[in-house]
Design brief:
This protein is mainly alpha-helical. The chain contains 9 helices and no strands. The longest helix is centred in the middle third of the chain and has 28 residues. The chain starts with 14 loop residues before the first helix and ends in a 5-residue tail after the last helix. The relative contact order is 0.12.
Length: 199
């Protein structure tokens, strides 16, 4: 099974890596608004000058966090799990919710950082907001590829519908619905059936 998308040990890496690892942990668990630069400096054990030499602003650090989140959460965890769990496009689409079910049950389940950051930075022209939207679009691109492989003509439409199920289940899980992933999977099965895709 692929590694969890959550924490990474700080280790003895470079100052930049220690800052980014600390920010990744804190931003994932608490959001970007609630975590100040001083806390990141204190917990990473680096000097303030080191942080600003590597990241000109907190926004630059958030952008780097979002990039790393895509590497770890979207690619190394979610996509890897989907490919490992299922052999056909339809089954892979449903495997997303099987993976989510295990994620939602974790004590350190923290929700979707891309959604969280997008909602924290509401200015649609802000680079952080735009980056969050882009990272979400990259997830839809993955879904679109699966839909195309499944032979669905309206692959973009189905990818958007599937993404709504994914995002909705994440929010429902954050509300405390322990069956959120299973409920979304049932809806996904209906959607696949509508397009004649075998699960």
């Amino acid at each position: 099974m692929a590694a969890s998308p959550q924490r990474t040990p700080l280790g003895r890496g470079s100052g930049r890596e220690r800052i980014l690892a600390t920010a990744y942990d804190l931003f994932s668990r608490h959001g970007t608004r609630a975590v100040g630069v001083d806390r990141i400096i204190a917990e990473s054990g680096v000097a303030k000058m080191t942080l600003y030499r590597n990241f000109a602003s907190k926004d630059d650090l958030i952008l780097a966090f979002l990039e790393r989140r895509e590497e770890r959460w979207t690619r190394a965890w979610l996509q890897a799990e989907v490919w490992e769990r299922a052999a056909t496009p339809g089954a892979r689409m449903l495997a997303i919710f099987d993976t989510f079910g295990e994620w939602f049950a974790r004590e350190d389940f923290e929700g979707c950082s891309f959604i969280n950051v997008m909602l924290e930075v509401t200015d649609t022209g802000h680079p952080v907001h735009a980056a969050s939207v882009l990272h979400l679009a990259n997830i839809r691109d993955f879904l679109r590829e699966l839909a195309l492989e499944a032979g669905i003509d309206d692959a973009d439409g189905v990818a958007r519908q599937w993404h709504i199920l994914m995002k909705g289940s994440i929010v429902a899980a954050a509300e405390g619905d322990v069956h959120a992933a299973a409920r979304a999977r049932e809806l996904g099965e209906l959607l696949l059936d509508r397009y004649g895709v075998a699960a």
